[in-house]
Amino acid sequence: MNLTVAEENYVKAIYKLQEGDQAVTTNALAYELDTKPASVTDMAKKLKEKKLIDYEKYQGITLTPEGRKTALQIVRRHRLWECFLVDKLSFSWEEVHELAEELEHVRSEKLINRLSDFLGNPVIDPHGDPIPDAHGRMAKPRPQTPLDQANAKRLVVTAVSDQSTALLAFLNAKGIKLGTQLEIVAHYEFDNSIEIKMKHLPSLTISEQVAKNIMVRPL
Amino acid sequence: MNLTVAEENYVKAIYKLQEGDQAVTTNALAYELDTKPASVTDMAKKLKEKKLIDYEKYQGITLTPEGRKTALQIVRRHRLWECFLVDKLSFSWEEVHELAEELEHVRSEKLINRLSDFLGNPVIDPHGDPIPDAHGRMAKPRPQTPLDQANAKRLVVTAVSDQSTALLAFLNAKGIKLGTQLEIVAHYEFDNSIEIKMKHLPSLTISEQVAKNIMVRPL
DNA sequence: AATTAAATTTAGACAAAGCTAAATAATAAA
DNA sequence: TTTATTATTTAGCTTTGTCTAAATTTAATT
Ligand SMILES: [Mn+2]
Ligand SMILES: [Mn+2]
Ligand SMILES: [Mn+2]
Ligand SMILES: [Mn+2]
């Protein structure tokens, strides 16, 4: 099926919001895509027509199996381009999302498979997110939790769930990246901030907001 | 100025057709872009509004200096992506044009300059066409002529002027590529076909059509 | 110079993707 | 269970880029 760029962006956004299998709401999708609910309703009708989503008035949106397959292809392209930009062109992780948002729409199986080979068939992208293979399968991520809910003391950073430039730039400034090892020094109940310690660095206190978006697993 | 993909394709096509400085006709542009003359007229009005072209009814189209600058940026992106695809992803020269046609529309100075560095700042693309630098300057190509007009006997292939898959595939089949050295054995007046000889290979006769599109210079 | 042919433009329509404002449905509060 | 609030949809309009058919201009031929 031949999708427009807009349709691809919708399908990917629905995939992202559809954690598990609960329906995605019109408003949530509008917010995610920085558009208006009325526009989402319009597009929902088109995507239903193309059998990429299940949609009934007022009932929210879910991807069909076909839609999910499509979404995974787009996610694959997005994440592989991110890897390319970071690994080969030396971009930093907060710069690549925007560019990948455009590169992901160049549709060519051959291109993307060769790109994957060229990169050594990576399985996670620069933000720690898994990359679907050519068949849409991804390594199920090793168990990870947001830093604010971690119970172990010694942890390693495995991903960032919010990928805004603002958060990533903050983490850069503090020297936190994928693979960074850290120790929880204290929880402060007042604002749920967390004090952490990385090797060779003075300890540092981060807000709950930040902690929620750093994914970790026990070391 | 922020151009749409369609506008970029028009500007690039006008640049391509505007050999020297003669105006590009509506019909020629429509044919080049595989669209209809009426659509070209519509777009001409928009591009004039954006000061990218000079255009008066019935008088044809020429790029303004601003338009030429824009065109050179697009050409730069196109040709650098072609280099990437051939040099890094092992595509062959007849496969890359289509893909570059899409990749060229990802607008990022930083991306394209890093890509250029990554590729070693190449100055010609896989078809022998010069690549504009970041300032829009290109090495003026060494003098070259179409094979059908060459007077020297021993020649080297420097570029292909028609880049259709059909021609490139034909050249592949015959073992002709950039840098190939050949000798003219005979001209046949009947159909202007040309017999050529490459080292270690039996001689071979090519049509005028083909010869017109192989650019060569004396060895 | 008049006529024919070719090139170009205009008029009117359509599909895609978006918007605002108004209407309707679903949910939450009183 | 009414009432108020929030979520969603509908209606109508806009922009971009395309098309066909008709009109007009320019160029080429008698
Ligand atoms: Mn995108
Ligand atoms: Mn990512
Ligand atoms: Mn293009
Ligand atoms: Mn080329």
TrEMBL record, chains A, B:
<dbReference type="InterPro" id="IPR038157">
    <property type="entry name" value="FeoA_core_dom"/>
</dbReference>
<protein>
    <recommendedName>
        <fullName>Transcriptional regulator MntR</fullName>
    </recommendedName>
</protein>
<dbReference type="GO" id="GO:0003677">
    <property type="term" value="F:DNA binding"/>
</dbReference>
<dbReference type="Pfam" id="PF04023">
    <property type="entry name" value="FeoA"/>
</dbReference>
<dbReference type="InterPro" id="IPR036421">
    <property type="entry name" value="Fe_dep_repressor_sf"/>
</dbReference>
<dbReference type="InterPro" id="IPR001367">
    <property type="entry name" value="Fe_dep_repressor"/>
</dbReference>
<dbReference type="Pfam" id="PF02742">
    <property type="entry name" value="Fe_dep_repr_C"/>
</dbReference>
<comment type="subunit">
    <text>Homodimer.</text>
</comment>
<keyword id="KW-0010">Activator</keyword>
<comment type="function">
    <text>In the presence of manganese, represses expression of mntH and mntS. Up-regulates expression of mntP.</text>
</comment>
<dbReference type="InterPro" id="IPR022689">
    <property type="entry name" value="Iron_dep_repressor"/>
</dbReference>
<dbReference type="GO" id="GO:0046914">
    <property type="term" value="F:transition metal ion binding"/>
</dbReference>
<dbReference type="GO" id="GO:0003700">
    <property type="term" value="F:DNA-binding transcription factor activity"/>
</dbReference>
<keyword id="KW-0963">Cytoplasm</keyword>
<feature type="domain" description="HTH dtxR-type">
    <location>
        <begin position="3"/>
        <end position="64"/>
    </location>
</feature>
<keyword id="KW-0464">Manganese</keyword>
<keyword id="KW-0238">DNA-binding</keyword>
<keyword id="KW-0804">Transcription</keyword>
<dbReference type="InterPro" id="IPR050536">
    <property type="entry name" value="DtxR_MntR_Metal-Reg"/>
</dbReference>
<dbReference type="GO" id="GO:0005737">
    <property type="term" value="C:cytoplasm"/>
</dbReference>
<keyword id="KW-0805">Transcription regulation</keyword>
<dbReference type="InterPro" id="IPR036390">
    <property type="entry name" value="WH_DNA-bd_sf"/>
</dbReference>
<dbReference type="InterPro" id="IPR007167">
    <property type="entry name" value="Fe-transptr_FeoA-like"/>
</dbReference>
<dbReference type="GO" id="GO:0046983">
    <property type="term" value="F:protein dimerization activity"/>
</dbReference>
<dbReference type="InterPro" id="IPR036388">
    <property type="entry name" value="WH-like_DNA-bd_sf"/>
</dbReference>
<keyword id="KW-0678">Repressor</keyword>
<dbReference type="Pfam" id="PF01325">
    <property type="entry name" value="Fe_dep_repress"/>
</dbReference>
<dbReference type="InterPro" id="IPR022687">
    <property type="entry name" value="HTH_DTXR"/>
</dbReference>
<comment type="similarity">
    <text>Belongs to the DtxR/MntR family.</text>
</comment>
